Amino acid sequence: MRVAVLGVGLIGGSIGLAAGRRLDAEVAGFDRDPATLARAAELGAVDRAAASVAEALEGAELVFCAAPVGALPALVGEALERSGPETVVTDVGSTKRGLLAAIERADGAGRFIGGHPLAGAETSGVEGAREDLFEGARWYLTPTERSQGVLYDRLQRAIAELGARPQAIDAAAHDRLMATVSHLPHVLADVLVSEAVDALAEESERLPEVGPSFRDTTRVAGANPAIWTDIFASNAEAVAAAIDRLVERLSESSRVLRAGQVEAIREWHGRAREDRRRLLDAELVGGPLSELRIAVENRPGTVAEIALALGRAGVNIEDMALYPAADMRTGAISLWIAGEEEAERAAEVVRELGHAVSPPEAGS
Amino acid sequence: MRVAVLGVGLIGGSIGLAAGRRLDAEVAGFDRDPATLARAAELGAVDRAAASVAEALEGAELVFCAAPVGALPALVGEALERSGPETVVTDVGSTKRGLLAAIERADGAGRFIGGHPLAGAETSGVEGAREDLFEGARWYLTPTERSQGVLYDRLQRAIAELGARPQAIDAAAHDRLMATVSHLPHVLADVLVSEAVDALAEESERLPEVGPSFRDTTRVAGANPAIWTDIFASNAEAVAAAIDRLVERLSESSRVLRAGQVEAIREWHGRAREDRRRLLDAELVGGPLSELRIAVENRPGTVAEIALALGRAGVNIEDMALYPAADMRTGAISLWIAGEEEAERAAEVVRELGHAVSPPEAGS
Prior knowledge:
Two copies of one chain form a homodimer.
Chain A: E1 2-6, H1 10-22, E2 26-30, H2 34-42, E3 48-49, H3 53-57, E4 62-65, H4 72-82, E5 88-91, H5 97-103, E6 114-117, E7 138-142, H6 149-161, E8 165-168, H7 171-203, H8 212-217, H9 225-234, H10 236-258, H11 262-282, E9 289-297, H12 302-312, E10 319-324, E11 330-338, H13 340-352, E12 356-362
């Protein structure tokens, strides 16, 4: 099989590596940045570094467009224009509806099937490319009524062979889903940070310490501005709708608080606890997550000591958060472990190291 | 000095330990739960386990009320009633205005000075009590015009000797500040989780995978329901006001998105980046935080290996987040390191282990 990869950063490079080794494909690559393309060739992510999009497309049966969201309409359009009637073109962008609309009238639009792997968005650059980046990852595909069955079948098989779990989804549903679980958290982090800076400036001359809840909630504030501005803009309607629904919920919370309805507060907060557990459990194979709270000295080596002991005991850490105290010398560590037995074993291991552990608690 | 501690959980127990060792005080303790009180005595957190509040108060110059927020009005009232005119009474609750209002008409209300240490809220129970829990921690004090100078002076000195950094603040300002940096993030986590569960139930039969941004933003959703319901209720007006301001910001974001104002989106997102950096830098001694992104296999031992190597190199990890990929076998780790040189050294250490590291990037 001949595969073309247009854009060979982290995602494109990883597709190239996996396609070469797992699909036994001949991979032609192109990138607007010659240095990136050369490096991709050096790393074996592409077999052939093409001098143009057209050259990369020669004989390709499968084309991956792996550029930033804002650059995709033009790139996908060019790929469709310069490829033959048997070639399936896909992309890896975070939003789908705008792209589909943009290329709707292009010749061969029926050969485009949108794609979105939920992997690797947290690092960038071809240096991070890995053959196994997509192993086990959900990879959404957004076929339309115009999509040819034989092309969808080819794409879907290839995605599965790259190691991912393809799933077809309507483009609009995909965008609404991402608006809720990915884009909305980013918006919230942004507005919360800005609200805090403005509100606190009124209260005191210097900004006060913020707690671990603030740190966690705002960790993605202002993430990768170039990428995220494009994502927000390309999914504006769905994100705005998600914001509007959240505004309704927040207004109701505000009303309940002002009315002093303690039972309603308890119910809303308790429900959130259950809801988060359901969401996180949904994606786990090893059983529900348990949280271990460990009181520690926040000195070099403490995290290592704990993680190492757990590693020796064969316990995997699914998620972790550090809560340094104000002095940055003491604090707490939360570890999330999948499976109750695993969690109990982990608690025992940590206690044997002499740390105080809050008993494993179901959920998080 | 004689100190009484009413309620000897994590905070009360730690106050007892620190008062005994650092103030050379004789510490009398009381707790409604006899087992907790006995354990506190065993751990050396109290010198004398009293059979009643009155007995604990005998001869005390300084009284710490360390009960949950909802129990404080009655407890502080009793402490004022049963202690002499030279005794200063304080508390450690997360909100201050409601408590002050509740005891306003109590005899000796002028001897009460509210307190709130920003420490240790993330673990619970006397087992976690430590002498150094408050080392370097901000400890807000909320004197009023009725507070006697000599009592404030005694309290403030004692707090400093416990290792904390006392700071006087108006009770209403304190509650507004906490509403923004602590209570509001909890409300947001709650509503985001519930919104996601409802919205996603409409899109698909099973809940989809959620990304790292969702995990981070909702980590405190439904935290300690008993404690948090009380906190929300006791700071209802300030939290509602913070929610209302956030609703305005969110509505503006929604408007900007719908209007397709890409430059406004870029500006808001970029501003959030700057704002978070300012907030986090404000509390650091070691210089601005840098983030290192490390691509890893998410197997037992990886975190340990990295943390251990950094420990050997003398680099401390201020904050950490794991981003497991969908297969839970690969992923990325973010480390936040204080100080640019430290961060560069850390990146080098991690690279030497063979992991790909995104170049240290200022801010987070």
